[in-house]
Structure formats: structure tokens, C-alpha cells
Design goal:
With 114 residues, this protein is an alpha/beta fold. The chain has a single domain, classed as Rossmann fold (3-Layer(aba) Sandwich), CATH 3.40.50. Helix content is 25%, strand content 22%. The protein has 3 helices and 7 strands.
């Protein structure tokens, strides 16, 4: 079985991250968590639940790494969520293959670079 990414947030940013995670071959599968929908699918990808379900689903082996798919207008919430899951769930990172990075660049976990 391949590596699965969970994205907290299934809106436009979450969808973009999901697309690049799979199309650029960083992950084999993607699942979502979203507090603001009762839908169970987003673009054919499963929504496993809400923020409160992340730890349980990780413990049940439903995903390997987590990324936050919340935009810039939610930076405070994004920070709170990172701190909530830090050292409890591994954070992933994505650097798109078309990105150019200086050799001295350090990309930390939880980062996405298009």
C-alpha cells in the first residue's frame, strides 16, 4: 500500500494540494478532514471527518502524514492546528518538481511549495 496524505481543509487550497500531492507523485492517496461540510467526498477523494477525528484516524492507520489546507486568511487557526498536532501526527511537505530552490533552502515539515 502506498503513502497517504491527509489534508485538513477540502476547499480550493486543499484541492490544489491534493492535486499536486498525487500528480507530482509525492503521495499515492489523499484524504481530507473538514469541519464545515457533511459531504463524504471531495472530487472523488474521501472526507474522513472533522478536526476532532484526525488523531483517531491516524491511530487507525488511515493516513501517514498531515498537511494543513487552510489559506492565508486563517493563519491564526493554522498556527493553532499545527501546534495541536505537532509531535502527535507527522506533518508532510511538498515541493513541486517544477520549483527552483536555492541549494541553501531548508523546507520544514508542513510546508507546500508550488
Amino acid at each position: 500500500m502506498g503513502k497517504t496524505l491527509a489534508i485538513l481543509g477540502s476547499g480550493h487550497l486543499g484541492e490544489q494540494i491534493a492535486h499536486y500531492a498525487i500528480s507530482d507523485k509525492h503521495y499515492d492517496y489523499v484524504v481530507f478532514f473538514n469541519d464545515f461540510t457533511e459531504d463524504t467526498l471531495r472530487n472523488g477523494l474521501p472526507i474522513l471527518g472533522k478536526t476532532d477525528d484526525v488523531l483517531t484516524e491516524f491511530s487507525n492507520g488511515r493516513f501517514d502524514e498531515l498537511l494543513l489546507g487552510l489559506g492565508y486568511q486563517h493563519l491564526n487557526i493554522k498556527k493553532e492546528l499545527f501546534e495541536l498536532f505537532d509531535n502527535r501526527v507527522p506533518f508532510g511537505k511538498i515541493v513541486h518538481s517544477s520549483s527552483w530552490l536555492d541549494p541553501s533552502t531548508v523546507i520544514e515539515r508542513g510546508c507546500v511549495v508550488y
